[in-house]
Automatic annotation (TrEMBL):
Its EC number is 1.1.1.-. It is an enzyme of class 1 (oxidoreductase). The lineage of its organism: Eukaryota, Viridiplantae, Streptophyta, Embryophyta, Tracheophyta. GO terms for cellular component: membrane. The keyword NADP applies. Keywords: NADP, Oxidoreductase. Belongs to the short-chain dehydrogenases/reductases (SDR) family. Coiled coil: none annotated. GO terms for molecular function: oxidoreductase activity, acting on the CH-OH group of donors, NAD or NADP as acceptor. This is Short-chain dehydrogenase/reductase.
Length: 314
């Protein structure tokens, strides 16, 4: 077991070194579909992975809007980047508050007119280490799943029509995988429903999280086949993964020149407040795949799940 853990660490470290090298290679002119007029929004970006994605996108020459629920903290975070010469703006955004979302959309429309990239990073996790309480399940599902949907629904009408297509990137987790080494889902009925991408709908995903929350209320969730570690967080990310596939399918039906491409990625176990700084990856490396996805020159990639710049299975 120790040997396999060491091999896995070696493999991960080697891949992260490769990615660090790739990050130093500038995009060529024919790859750069964006300009300084290209507008990206990153939610929950006052620290950690979100802050780092803002920094990297701005470093590539985009105009980036850093958003945060806490105005004072967000203003300070944006100021750090502005003082570094980055083209970063700030606006308060609480993805659980419909009035906050409306205000944000109004401001975007008046100041920028449109956006080109939306990275949904805002999220919460209340379990650190080996704790696995479901006490805050409603808040976790509301923020990570419904909050993400709220801001996507509000932003899609403001996404610019262009031949390069607009992009939506959802920050998610391998903990939400339906199959694979990291999957702890034992509920075969849920797995089958969410794996069936042809008949998968938003309603199916909503019903799945509702079923989980009902079992939490009833105290029966432990026998429901849900993951037994980071349970509420894992279920919320499982829902975001499934919703990304539904969204990508819907958006792919748009006419040429109005396309929006939606993908999700796992940043890994990053040293941030969300992991109690117990992660094994830096925020810079954790942010990398999200930035890479947002800037992909081959815009036809949609409805996929990535980690360390590679496609992985849902």
């Amino acid at each position: 077991m120790v040997g396999s853990k060491e091999k896995s660490k070696e493999k991960r470290d080697k891949r992260l070194q490769e990615i660090s090298l790739l990050r130093t290679i500038p995009y060529s002119d024919h790859q750069r579909w964006w300009t300084s007029e290209t507008v990206a929004v990153v939610t929950g970006a006052n620290r950690g992975i979100g802050f780092e994605m803002v920094r990297q996108l701005a470093g590539h020459g985009l105009t980036v809007i850093l958003t945060s629920r806490d105005e004072n903290v967000g203003v300070e975070a944006a100021k750090i980047l502005q003082e570094g010469g980055f083209n970063v703006d700030f606006h308060r955004l609480d993805i659980l508050d419909s009035c906050s979302i409306q205000d944000f959309c109004k401001w975007i429309k008046e100041k920028y007119g449109f956006i080109d990239v939306l990275i949904n990073n805002a999220g919460v996790n209340y379990n650190i280490g080996t704790n696995n309480s479901v006490e805050f399940s409603h808040m976790v599902i509301s923020t990570n799943y419904y909050g993400t949907k709220n801001i996507i629904n509000a932003m899609v009408p403001l996404m610019r029509h262009a031949s390069s297509g607009a992009r939506i990137v959802n920050v998610t987790s391998r903990l939400g995988r339906l199959k694979g080494r990291h999957s702890k889902l034992e509920n075969e009925a849920v797995r089958a429903k969410l794996m069936d991408v042809e008949s998968l709908t938003e309603e199916t995903v909503d019903k799945t999280v509702s079923e989980f929350l009902i079992q939490v209320e009833e105290g029966t969730w432990e026998s429901g086949g849900w993951p037994h570690s980071f349970t509420d967080y894992s279920v919320s990310k499982m829902a975001v993964n499934a919703y990304t596939r539904v969204l990508a399918k819907e958006l792919s039906e748009r006419a040429e020149g109005k396309k929006i491409y939606a993908n999700c990625f796992c940043p890994g176990w990053v040293k941030t407040a969300m992991t109690g700084y117990a992660g094994n990856i830096s925020a810079e490396d954790g942010a990398d795949t999200g930035v890479w996805l947002a800037l992909l020159p081959d815009q036809a990639i949609t409805g996929k799940f990535f980690a360390e710049r590679r496609e992985i299975n849902f």
